[in-house]
């Protein structure tokens, strides 16, 4: 349980004040939808959409990078450029390995942790997604992962760095419960170098409207990968387990590589040293907080041709990108087996998005790469994982043959026999359908579903947990800090089980050769609404019931002290 002291409160408020001026409003207009069933498509008068805002603007999809080593800023497309760390020699990094011991401390190193030989080390493909969670993006990531199996027979997991503009909260709940994906923080409104209210507000809104316990939201990635030393200090004060905003931009084959395995910040940062002021050379000292570098993919130019997020947007020829990915992967596999990253904005590989041709060639290429990497008999011990799983292994680095001894790599499905609103698709008849009746409210053009009660207005950094009231005069109870999402009944306001009393169906199998438990047929489920059926009823935000209290993890008064700005694209009409 995270508890904030008075000293922590003061420092967090200082961090918030120092970073507030850097916040820049970002406009977003995303389409919302429940899993496998979409809400009405936006009216033609939409001024912006997700493909043009925040992430990788569509007009940059095939643009070559003029400045591949320039750090990202909020005016560039996310992933558009890669930060320069000057490599290991420029980090001024020194760590006392005799004092820095797992599981609480890890020095930055290019060698596998725990003294493992590379041949005994698992080869991890870390799969992540950023931004809003909605039907299009859920189907996109599931199309790459759900038909696959890791060597122990379990479906792969991934990490979703979630921003809230136009996110459907029931989708968030379902990703956590149905698929065991990691839900992590990406700020509320997608602002770079964010103020504290953007980060803490995201935690509170995801907890209250998606039912994700605070202790399950442990990771953070800065929008645009635009962070500062104050961002890292703020995350440490909020007791995040890790940040994953820094870049590894020197190939693993270079003696000066900065492709470090994840490390704690007990001895400062070792990445992005030339890109972010005030880090490296032993700073910042944040004991116990991990940095999980984002590992670049390189084209034939080597370090001058680094690609980070959505590399499949960086060439009109998918075969070129496939070769970059294969060559970089082989360098990692044949070396010290540092993780290989697939960092996506899944809206760019989504199908069925209104007015946009399906990116069929890119989807086929990504699946082709994953097939090659995970079913190749000459490359064993390849696992597709989340950052949460990666860190669980970093803290206890067992040989690949013993990964089944770690709970994070098992595949237990909650056995919940009661009919409760908990994110399981079989119980989706219990969800509430929310839309604002306030003129100008952002959710007029992006209604969402939730198990946990409709708010009176859109969550914002100033008010991340609005008051609740539903048209039927019922009140849904937000999740208890002592319960897991799958077992919480928000209607009855009770936890069905805790700890060892919770039953799981464990489908974990003995670890076998790569390819033994795998299938490469991609999923193409992009089902939309049936136009012959009546529209779902929505609940207006028109009440004023008391909202849930702020948890002990968050600084009391912090959100009201820090000012956040939300700018949204307005849709002229939405037919319900």
UniProtKB/TrEMBL annotation:
GO terms for biological process: carbohydrate metabolic process. SUPFAM superfamilies: Glycoside hydrolase/deacetylase. Residues 1-23 form the signal peptide. Residues 59-81, 513-546 are annotated as: Disordered. This is Chitin deacetylase. It comes from the Eukaryota. Keywords: Signal. Residues 513-526 have a biased composition (Polar residues). The keyword Nuclease does not apply.
């Amino acid at each position: 349980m995270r508890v904030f002291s008075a000293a922590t409160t003061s420092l967090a408020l200082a961090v918030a004040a120092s970073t507030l001026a850097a916040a820049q409003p970002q406009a977003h207009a995303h389409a919302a939808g429940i899993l496998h069933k979409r809400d009405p498509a936006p009216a033609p008068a939409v001024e912006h959409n997700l493909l043009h805002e925040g992430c990788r603007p569509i007009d940059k999809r095939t643009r070559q990078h003029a400045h591949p080593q320039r750090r990202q800023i909020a005016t560039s497309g996310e992933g558009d450029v890669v930060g320069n760390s000057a490599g290991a020699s420029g980090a001024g990094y020194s760590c006392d390995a005799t004092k820095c011991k797992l599981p609480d401390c890890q020095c930055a190193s290019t060698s596998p942790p725990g003294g493992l030989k590379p041949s005994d080390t698992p080869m991890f493909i870390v799969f992540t997604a950023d931004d809003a969670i909605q039907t299009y993006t859920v189907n996109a990531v599931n199309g790459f992962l759900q038909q696959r199996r890791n060597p122990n027979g379990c479906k792969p997991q991934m990490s979703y760095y979630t921003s809230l503009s136009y996110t459907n909260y029931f989708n968030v709940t379902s990703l956590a419960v149905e698929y065991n994906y990691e839900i992590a923080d990406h700020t509320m409104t997608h602002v770079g170098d964010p103020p504290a209210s953007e980060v803490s507000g995201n935690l509170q809104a995801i907890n209250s409207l998606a039912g994700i316990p605070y202790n399950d939201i442990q990771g953070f990635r800065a929008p645009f990968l635009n962070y500062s030393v104050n961002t890292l200090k703020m995350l440490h004060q909020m007791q995040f387990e890790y940040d994953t905003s820094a870049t590894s931009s020197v190939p693993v084959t270079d003696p000066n590589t900065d492709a470090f395995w994840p490390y704690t910040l007990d001895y400062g940062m070792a990445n992005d040293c030339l890109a972010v002021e005030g880090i490296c050379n032993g700073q910042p000292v944040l004991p116990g907080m991990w940095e999980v570098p984002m590992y670049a993919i390189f084209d034939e130019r080597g370090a001058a041709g680094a690609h980070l997020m959505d590399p499949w947007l960086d060439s009109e020829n998918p075969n070129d990108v496939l070769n970059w990915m294969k060559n970089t992967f082989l360098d990692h596999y044949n070396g010290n087996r540092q993780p290989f990253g697939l960092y996506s904005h899944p809206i760019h590989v989504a199908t069925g998005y209104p007015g946009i041709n399906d990116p069929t060639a890119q989807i086929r290429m990504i699946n082709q790469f994953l097939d090659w990497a995970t079913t190749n008999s000459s490359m064993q011990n390849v696992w597709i994982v989340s950052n949460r799983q990666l860190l669980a292994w970093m803290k206890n680095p067992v040989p690949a043959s013993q990964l089944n001894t770690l709970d994070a790599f098992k595949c237990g499905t909650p056995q919940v026999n009661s009919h409760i609103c908990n994110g399981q698709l079989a119980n989706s008849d219990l969800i509430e359908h929310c839309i604002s009746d306030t003129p100008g409210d952002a959710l007029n053009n992006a209604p969402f579903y939730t198990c946990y009660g409709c708010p009176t207005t859109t969550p914002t950094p100033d008010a991340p947990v609005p008051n609740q009231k539903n048209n039927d005069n019922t009140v849904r109870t937000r999740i208890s800090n002592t319960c897991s999402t799958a077992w919480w009944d928000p209607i009855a306001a009770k936890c069905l089980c805790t700890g060892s009393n919770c039953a799981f169906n464990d489908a974990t199998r003995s670890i076998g050769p790569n390819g033994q438990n795998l299938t490469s047929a991609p999923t193409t489920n992009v089902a939309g609404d049936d136009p012959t059926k009546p529209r779902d009823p929505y609940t207006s935000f028109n009440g004023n019931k008391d909202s849930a209290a702020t948890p002990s993890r968050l600084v009391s008064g912090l959100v009201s002290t820090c000012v956040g700005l939300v700018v949204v694209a307005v849709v002229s009409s939405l037919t319900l």
